[in-house]
Design a protein that fits this description.
The chain is an alpha/beta fold. Among the domains are: 75 residues; 77 residues, no CATH class; 142 residues, Rossmann fold (3-Layer(aba) Sandwich); 114 residues, GMP Synthetase, Chain A, domain 3. Helix content is 33%, strand content 22%. It has 24 helices and 37 strands. Strands 8-7-20-19-21-22-23-24-26 form a nine-stranded mixed beta sheet, sandwiched between helices. A seven-stranded mixed beta sheet has the order 15-14-11-9-10-17-18, sandwiched between helices. Helix 7 packs across helix 8.
Amino acid sequence: MKREELVGAGLNKDEADTLLKVVEDVFDRITLTNNGSTVAAAAAAEVWREIVARKMLHPHHSHALHQLVYNSVYSHWDSSLLGPPLYWFPSLYESYNTNLGRLMEAHGPRLLGKSYQDPITSFSTFHNFTVKNPEIYWSLVLKELSVWFREAPRRILDDTDSSIPGGTWFPGALLNISECCLLPTSYPRKMDNSLAIVWREEGADDLPVCQLTLKQLREQVMLVANALDATFAKGDVIAIDMQMTPNAVIIYLAIILSGRIVVSIADSFAAKEIATRLRISKAKGIFTQDFIVRGGRRFPLYSRVLEAAPNLAIVVPAVGESINMSIRKQDISWKDFLTRASQLTRPHEYSPVYQSGDSITHILFSSGTTGDPKAVPWTQLSPIQAAADSWAHMDIRVGDVMCWPTNLGWVVGPILLYGCFLNGATLALYNGSPLGRGFGKFVQDARVSILGTVPSLVKTWKNSHCMDGLDWTSLRVFASSGEASNVDDDLWLSSRAYYKPIIEVCGGTELAGSYLQGSLLQPQAFGAFSTPTMSSGFVILDDCGNPYPEDQACEGEVALFPLRLGATDRLLNADHEEVYFKGMPLYKGMRLRRHGDIVKRSVGGFFLVQGRADDTMNLGGIKTSSVEIERACNQADDSVLETAAVGAAPLQGGPEMLVLFVILKEGTVSDPESLRMKFSKAIQRSLNPLFKVNLVKILPEFPRTVTNKLLRRVLRDQIKQELSVRSRI
């Protein structure tokens, strides 16, 4: 890194000289020897820490400058010996003010004895304690969340029944988790005038951000709950297929407040997929929008719902107060629906329906290796796990404003909702496309302090330069989930807020949260996870199903410890025991839980998710079944005999690529590019308009076992090898 390079990338001469002097001083101060040689790489982390601490790199500097400095500082870093390079370092002073740091300072000396030192030094020890003593951990965390029991549980956890690997949590409890989101509390401090939701409509970039207080939210939820009573029976299953707007959130909370069950469906799904989810869940009706607003365009949604033919649809306007279209006679407009409650004497008051902790409140869907998606039920306890993950790892607090472009149909939707409302934070929603500058300006104007992302979104922001000139310095934490992150994209993202940490999140719908995350009490590396989630444990299995030693760098299938609050103990359309526990090994007396991720543990204890061990993949942050993709592609061209879909991780990191292997019918000819285009159109039409095929490979036959089972891992390895060869050409 030379002065002229820094000046060429955007620094003035004085700034360049100052930065180079910092580098020189740190290397002079930290000189390590190894067999008489200076190990310069070992000082790189301290150089980067100093540059970031002094804010020598600004958000307005070019990405080329950030790249130059980061890559130069770590040019001699050997990840095989040192682990991934670090970019963020916890401050001891700030650690005391984090949620988890406060908890550790208050209880660490009592729980850990003389081994407790401070939140950073003792983090791993405390995490291990929470895994071995979940009752103690959860008794403390519950006091930090806005959770109120109508009848208190007899105990936190009953794990005496060996037939229930996940244990019985909060036996005897009665509550309504929606009510917990809506009531003012002294701790965490939520008042009636606290901001519950802020939002903006796409195209209203220059207008003030809209606001809804906790009292206003509660009144709207109770109004809808009364209208639900006038329309549906208690216990009915009701679907939501909408963008994540304030109205969608209100409807979601009202369904649960009134003792009914939500089925959430992503607004991007084709009619066939909507119909499948309505059929499996036995939904009695569906809330939907007349159309979707995204990227300055309007896309029909109600018409897609009509193809799915539900019994009843309540149609909510995407813009304004009235829908601008005709609807079926059996359906109800949003305005008419609310009128059913407004006729009551007290339409904005409602008595919640209290149920046991294990009662179902929400049905989500997660694709598996079969044709139909798995129907995953969330109980009243699942939101507590989701909110606690956000509390402990993203450090969400009263006063925070959190935004994460998502949808109630994906697990991040309810995690975001409960993470805000049970922690006393403000939920920030943008009704439109998150791909452009309008979204970024909303983040600026709403003073978002925690921003959740998907890696493909970050790549788009970086490459399009659409966020240039915006002020994101109110951000103190980023979060990233759904796909593998790209180091250079994360470098760009973190630099927008003076290198604030990006908390990587990996979990599952059936877990009601994550099993791998980052932590503000540990150094962070781009695209890597630094710890199992609090109170969660796992092992990494070798090819023979044996756990690797906990301190060994390795790669294999992850197997989760079974005791986990809020995780599923049933599936609505599959055998839960067979899916998650059958054939899994015992570990320290526990039957391990199957999850399906291939995880690499690096030197230094960081984790990287390498893909799926089963037949599913993540496309654009959406867990998708290979079988569903293949079913669509097999009908796309008459020359196709059979297809095999696999996900391939790019060598430089980032979202999975969708690769289709094809066997052609005897005597037919076709070329890969024309098939790629036909396959893309087929899956966009029948599955999701956001999906695309990246590569098609025509083979004479597929690798199979002696029982004719397709060996997808062999196909993945072939693509990985081919991508590696291409990168060297």
